[in-house]
Amino acid sequence: MSPNQAETTRKQDDKSKLEDEVRLRHFTEEVLDSRQEELEVQEKENSKLSKKLELLQQELKEAQSQLAQARSQSNNAEETKSQSTRSSTKRKDITEIEAQEAYKKLCENVKRWVEYRIRPVLDDLASGHFRCQPTPAQSTRFVSLMREPATSCLNVWHSDEYHFTAIIMQYLWLVFFTKSFYCPLDDADGETTAAWIDDLESAISKLPRDIQHCREWRSETLTALTSQKSFKSRRAAYLNLITEDLASLLTVVVPYLTATELQNSLRTSIIDPAVDLAHRLQLCPNVFSLRWPARTARSKLDTYECINLADRGTIMMKSDENGKSSDALRNASYLFDIAPGLFVETVSGAKKSAAKIVCKPTVLVYGGDKDSDIPQKSMTLTRLLWDFANGSKSRSLGPSRNISPKSKTLILRRHRSKL
């Protein structure tokens, strides 16, 4: 190939390369332009999404704020409801006036029951028709419920009804009012749950909690437990046992009634009112208690409700017109206790008040003439049961003669009160 041809070929190759480079550059520029357009479109889309995200975030914050507000309102509503429920529960707690009325009604029920049921037996004893022969075990259990002062008044004229009233009140006091809770709260030994509540209340009281908090916790816990169906059935069974037990105790003084009649009578007149009262008292945050007169009762008659045996069981006036102890009360002789008094210790915050009298204890006194002796009778039903309990049957069960009580040889020395 000649030099000219070679040169021409080289130039054509260079031209071809240059054209290829130009086309490649144009293509590259077109690709870049296209990519740039896509990026711009993407940036616009990103901008729109960012604005939308900000809007959604703002809506989320508002929703969260509304949710928090709704939760706060719901909590306030629940707290209000809870407070309302607690307030309602407090309003259902027995008041001092309600407790006073219920306890007086219970005492009156026992008194009327004794008068109605025991009178025929006393009439039979007086006429010589009393043929009941209680076993020593029956008599022993019956007289074991007599408080100590009563054992020195076995022969006091017309005292039988008051002895039996006192024995029934003593029985109710022991069975329902001296326990932490009157009825078993579990099916085991009956005391496990009550003991657990007592222990836990004691533990809570040692924490930085005031006494009102502890008592309200106890009240709410007992209310919850006693609202269960199992408690209601357990209570019914327990009350059946108590009714049967009290009926077996009193059979020695009301032998003319069948077991069913005696149990139904006791359940309606005495057991149910006593249980209802014990239930309400022991669910209350305030501390109610039944207390018998002190051993020094004979020197503090003005603090008790005194039933005057010399005046057919009327209540003696405590003071005269000048507010001083009446002469009759100062000259009265204390015989024995009939019924415990009802007291309350009010709980408020971190304090518990001193015991306050709701119903005074009741005692039997003899307020006759200043120098008169307390009339005695050689055979009373209480004396008869006492003798049977001690294995003695030597006393006559025949009719008593119509002689004045003052002519009896048995004379009880009068212990006048020191008012």
Task: Provide tags for this entry.
10 helices, 419 residues, 57% helix, alpha+beta, four-stranded mixed beta sheet, disordered C terminus
- The proportion of residues forming helix, as a percent range, comes to 55-70%
Write out the strand line-up for the largest beta sheet, numbering strands in chain order: 3-2-9-4
What is the residue-mean pLDDT, rounded to a whole number?
Answer: 81
Beta-sheet strand percentage? 5-15%
Q: Tell me the series of helices and strands, N- to C-terminal.
A: HHHHHHHHEEEHEEEEEEH
Give me the oligomer status. Answer: single chain
Main beta sheet: strand number and arrangement? Answer: 4 strands, mixed
Radius of gyration: 46 Å
Structure annotation, total helices: 10
- Total DSSP E strands: 9
Q: Strand pairing plus helix content: what structural class?
A: alpha+beta
- Structural domains: how many: 2
Note poorly predicted spans. 83-91, 394-419
> Which shape, going by the Cα principal axes?
rod-shaped
Distance between the termini: 163 Å
